[in-house]
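User: Fold this one for me? It's non-specific serine/threonine protein kinase.
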Amino acid sequence: WQGLLPGGEEVAVKKLSYSSTQGYAEFENEVLLTAKLQHVNLVRLLGFCIDEEEHMLVYEFMPNNSLDKYLFDSVKRLQLNWRKRVEIIEGVTQGLLYLQKYSRLTVIHRDLKPSNILLDSGMNPRISDFGLARIFVRGAEEANTERVFATIGYAPPEYLNEGVYSAKSDVFSFGVLLLQIISGKIIASVYGEQKKLNLLDYAYEMWKDGRGMEVMDSSLDDSRSSCKLMTCLQISLLCVQGNPEDRPSMADVAFMLRNYTAALGIPLRPVFPRKDDVTMKRMPTNDLQACPEDETIWTELEAR
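Assistant: Here's what I get for non-specific serine/threonine protein kinase.
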């Protein structure tokens, strides 16, 4: 919802609906976490309200909506030239680096995707929606949960299959996001000549065959950026490796993005977890929540 404070400031109001899959625990988690995090690339929480059944969060207003509304729209994507996409990539990178390394808390977002990247008046990115985020104790490398909530396509295999999450979980999600920013392609589709490849496999095959530029968004027609685009493609593939240990850290990602001539590792074929590969807990149909066009179904999964 869009609101107006008495002083005239526009705000965004997030209201927890009765049918929402986000329960009170997730609502409380989002309040406590977001209030402690301050960074130019994170959406800022202004206040909250808990009144019996009413649960609301008040955020600063982001007039340009979310990144998915531009990436996957044939007209609006033209507003995202290469320079602007670089700024968005760098902004999200810095936001994640802050969460993992520079904030007072070590935070794993666990739900990074285009619809959770909001854009301010200058089209600068703000990471939003911390309902599923978790705090890590300094020095801890990973944690485990028996209840897995994820958007399939953005969540890494170790989280979907075993309930294990770490900083490398967000690296995987960032890799998918980076690939979508440079390609303009949705995750829930098939690609290739036979239309049998998911986005990650398609990008890998094209990169391996030296045809990586064919993956890129056709609106990015500046040939001077081809080298940087190919570097971003390779970085995205490194981020979506099946083994978390094979993925770079966000600090490594930030370095590689700043130094396009730096030597990069050679990615193996990425792992794209499908719904069929994950053991799902049976749930009533009304507990499932539909996702936007570029996503699959939000659901609760049971770790194997």
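One thing worth pointing out: DSSP finds eight helices and 13 strands in the chain.
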